[in-house]
Amino acid sequence: MYKIPESVLVVIHTSDLDVLLIERADRAGFWQSVTGSLDRIDEPLHETAARELFEETGIVADGVDIVLHDWHLTNVYEIYPVWRHRYAPGVTSNTEHIFSVCVPRDIPVVLSPREHTAHLWLPWREAADRCFSPSNAEAILHLP
After folding, report:
1. For the chain, which end, N or C, has fewer CB atoms within 10 Å of the first or last residue's CB respectively?
2. Is residue 22 a contact partner of residue 118, using CB atoms and an 8 Å limit?
3. How many helices (H) and strands (E) are present in the chain, helices listed first?
4. Has this prediction a pTM greater than 0.90?
């Protein structure tokens, strides 16, 4: 089954603009925010963002204390060649929808070991510098 070339990016931050980054299990040193593709073509973007947030960090967007914000902003980028095999033949670009969520600094983070090996909190500028993805870094820089 091929991945759908439409995804979400969820920037997790505190009210002081510390940003949570997670390190990819399949690429040591590749730090990022939560990302993930739609599970089905008709999956609502907000549902995808909430699902990926929970799957990758254990954080539940309950809509009351933890609220996902849709930035109504999209990026279209070229899929890195190393990951193109996950998509249908000929698919070379992905459409990414940006979300953010403000959480307490002491919120428990439970990583999916299949996807990520470590996490850290950094001030927003440092977090942007650490991201391997230019669109992820750009989203973080738009936080303030």
Report:
1. N
2. yes
3. 3, 7
4. yes
